[in-house]
Amino acid sequence: MEARVSEPKLVLVFSGKRKSGKDYVTDLIQNRLGSDVCGVLRLSGPLKQQYAKEHGLDLDQLMGPGLYKEQYRADMILWGEIRRQQDPGFFCRLATTGVQQPVWVVSDARRRSDLQWFWSEFPRQTRSVRVQSSDKTRQQRGWSFSAGVDDAESECGLDSKVDFDWIITNETSALSLEEQLQPILKLAEESVSLMDQ
After folding, report:
1. For residue 1, is pLDDT > 60?
2. What's phi and psi for 82, nearest 5 deg?
3. Measured torsion, CA atoms of residues 187, 192, 195, 197, in degrees rounded to the nearest 10
4. Distance between CA atoms of 75 and 89, rounded to whole angstroms?
5. Can you tell me the distance from the alpha carbon of 190 to that of 197, in angstroms, rounded to the nearest whole number?
6. What's the CA gap between 144 and 177, in Å, rounded?
7. Pairing of the two strands 10-16 and 103-109
8. Do the bridges between strand 103-109 and strand 166-169 make them parallel or antiparallel, or are there none, so unpaired?
9. Residue 3: pLDDT band by 50, 70, 90 thresholds?
10. Backbone angles phi, psi at 8, to 5 degrees
11. How big is the CA angle at 110 (ends 50 and 171), to the nearest 5 degrees?
12. What is the pLDDT of residue 64?
């Protein structure tokens, strides 16, 4: 496995339910900071790559938002749980390999072990962020409850007993995302400016 190029100045670990808008929010942050400063890491990427490789599946379709991924989701979750039981940091290490930017945005933490790995590896730099949306809003975005998926640890593992540094409410009735993201963007900019001194 390729080693990390450098240690991050800030690690923002995002979590949230399916269709809560995690990718949208993390992409907004990267767009504001620039891709030279901010790298978006997806823990699901290495998981899906390894799963596709071992099961002879189409990785591009597995990475997409369509039905192809959904038909394999339950089995992929179970397969990923077995991998994590053997090595809790397996997918986190794969996702961080070769990242060069000083700000890391992990877009899809799903389990306590994901957060614990980042807190353990980067205790000073890691902050946790929860993106939340109502079920009604998630349904408008295409979500519907799926037994064995939406009630599994991959969706519920961070629903409670986590003291998030920030909670972002991704709803039209909430404060604008721009306003909610201001303290996060400010911290990121400060982290990078410290690097330049």
Report:
1. no
2. -65, -45
3. -90
4. 20
5. 11
6. 24
7. parallel
8. unpaired
9. low
10. -70, 155
11. 125
12. 83
- On whether the CB atoms of residues 15 and 131 are closer than 8 A, the answer is yes
pLDDT of 4 strictly over 60? no
Separation of alpha carbons 86 and 80, rounded Å: 10
HSE toward the beta carbon, residue 50, CA cutoff 13 A: 16
3-state SS string for the chain: CCCCCCCCCEEEEEEECCCCCHHHHHHHHHHHHCCCCEEEECCHHHHHHHHHHHHCCCHHHHHCCCHHHHHHHHHHHHHHHHHHHHCCCHHHHHHHCCCCCCEEEEEEECCHHHHHHHHHHCCCCEEEEEEECCHHHHHHCCCCCCCCCCCCHHHHCCCCCCCCCEEEECCCCCCCHHHHHHHHHHHHHHHHHHHHC
What region, left, alpha or beta, does residue 9 occupy, with left being phi > 0 and alpha being psi -120 to 50 degrees?
Answer: alpha
Taking the C-alpha atoms of residue 98 and residue 4, their distance in angstroms, rounded to an integer, is 5
Cα 158 from Cα 186, distance rounded (Å)? 25
Pair 118, 13: CB distance under 8 Å: yes
More confident residue, 154 or 160: 160
Of 106 and 80, the one with more pLDDT: 106
Q: What is the pLDDT of residue 196?
A: 61
Residues in the chain: 197
Query: What are the tokens at 43?
Result: 């823990």
Q: What is the pLDDT of residue 146?
A: 85
